[in-house]
Amino acid sequence: MLPVARFERFFCSDNGRPTKNLTVLMGLMVIQETNDLTNQQAVDMLAHDRRCQFALGIDDRSDESRYVSLGDLCRTQTTAREQWLWDFDP
To answer: Which of 26, 36, 54, 68 has its CA at a distance of 20 to 30 angstroms from the CA of residue 74?
Structure first.
């Protein structure tokens, strides 16, 4: 079980651009860590690898659902490290 609820307090639901689904971002961090991927490799894997998309519950083929920016991934990792929510070393 991913600690998504612990992240929600760091994102405003009514101000600015909506963040990517936190479950997808955190799941991508798990896949990245278990496969020893760089940030760019993880983002590319989400965009192009159907196994990764399936594992993260992405069931449509739209570009929007399969795209995470490198910045979004890095910000999520930084928030996790700063708040001691995730022991992550990219």
So the answer is: 54
